[in-house]
């Protein structure tokens, strides 16, 4: 595809930076994508390819609503709405809601997931069920000293009796890193290491090693996020199987099956039968009167 077509939606370098959405909204990158190449969207029409390439370059959390995209791309809202629906049908986009465990709230968060790599309905179904692992956030280049090493090296400021040498910090660093992996915070660790210290502390390194071992918090139980996809046209939530291409049956032009009348419970059947018998008896009595 002509490079000019792919760059049609690229904003000038002097333009206003693309805004972020409110927390919980905005672009959300799908996991396990292939590395970016110049041929990622060549299977799409030129307009859709240009829009997809532009969205792909935006960071997570960027506002990719139709109104905001129209302010930053050379397309109107109607054209963008159509293009996003086509990106959805091509497997690059899904809309829905997600409840993340540990968020401290029972509310469902609106999500718009974007995948540079086109996905079929089977993949999106597995993703919705939490069967596809979430991506790890981009990690900055490793600093000279880790978070665990810095805490250990500064421990003597909080508890002078626990001052450690450089070699002690290096040796204890892996143990303390495991605490952070299990969700412990700096205040949690400081309390565990400094509370109730004996007097005197004969070997700070040995004491810290013992406490890091015996007080190690339990490993968190992995719990996948709960996700629900929504129709890209009308926003109706549904099972992934009912939203092929991200669109519900009515929006695809399918007729809904006629609703089935639920059978009456036994008590209601007996009541109707009794009422019919009483009506028949009353009719006969009036006839013979």
Structure description:
The protein is an alpha+beta fold. A 5-stranded mixed beta sheet has the order 1-3-2-4-5. Strand 4 (226-230) and strand 5 (237-238) form a beta hairpin. Helix 2 crosses helix 4 and helix 6 crosses helix 8. The protein has helices spanning 3-6, 46-57, 66-72, 77-89, 121-128, 147-153, 155-158, 166-181, 186-194, 204-214, 266-288; strands spanning 27-29, 93-99, 109-114, 226-230, 237-238. Among the domains are: 3-128, no CATH class; 147-214, no CATH class. The model is unreliable at 1-8 and 136-142 (pLDDT under 50).
Any chance you could write out the topology, listing elements then pairs?
Elements (H helix, E strand, L loop, with lengths): L2 H4 L20 E3 L16 H12 L8 H7 L4 H13 L3 E7 L9 E6 L6 H8 L18 H7 L1 H4 L7 H16 L4 H9 L9 H11 L11 E5 L6 E2 L27 H23 L1
Parallel strand pairs: 1-3
Antiparallel strand pairs: 2-3, 2-4, 4-5
Low-confidence stretches: 1-8, 136-142
Radius of gyration: 31 Å
The counted number of beta strands is 5
SS class: alpha+beta
Shape: flat
Features:
five-stranded mixed β-sheet; flat; alpha+beta; 5 strands; 289 residues; 8% strand; single chain; disordered N terminus
């Amino acid at each position: 595809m002509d490079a000019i077509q792919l760059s049609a939606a690229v904003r000038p370098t002097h333009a206003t930076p693309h805004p972020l959405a409110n927390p919980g909204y905005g672009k959300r990158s799908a996991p396990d994508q292939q590395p970016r190449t110049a041929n990622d969207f060549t299977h799409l029409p030129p307009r859709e390819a240009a829009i997809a390439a532009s969205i792909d370059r935006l960071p997570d959390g960027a506002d990719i609503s139709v109104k905001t995209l129209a302010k930053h791309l050379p397309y109107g809202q109607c054209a963008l709405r159509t293009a996003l629906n086509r990106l959805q049908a091509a497997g690059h986009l899904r809309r829905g809601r997600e409840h993340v465990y540990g968020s401290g709230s029972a509310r469902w968060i609106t999500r718009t997931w974007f995948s540079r790599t086109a996905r079929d309905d089977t993949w999106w179904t597995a993703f919705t069920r939490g069967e596809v692992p979430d991506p790890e956030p981009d990690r900055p280049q490793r600093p000279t000293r880790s978070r665990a090493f810095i805490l250990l090296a500064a421990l003597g400021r909080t508890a002078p009796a626990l001052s450690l040498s450089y070699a002690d910090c290096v040796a204890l660093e892996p143990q303390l890193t495991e605490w952070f992996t299990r969700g412990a915070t700096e205040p949690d660790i400081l309390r565990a290491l400094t509370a109730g210290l004996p007097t005197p502390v004969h070997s700070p390194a040995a004491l810290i090693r013992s406490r890091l071992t015996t007080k190690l918090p339990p490993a968190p139980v992995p719990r996948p996020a709960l996700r629900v996809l929504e129709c890209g046209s009308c926003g109706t939530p549904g099972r992934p199987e009912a939203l092929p291409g991200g669109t519900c049956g009515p929006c695809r032009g399918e007729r809904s099956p006629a609703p089935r009348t639920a059978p009456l419970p036994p008590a209601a059947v007996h009541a109707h039968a009794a009422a019919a018998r009483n009506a028949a008896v009353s009719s006969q009595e009036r006839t013979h009167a």
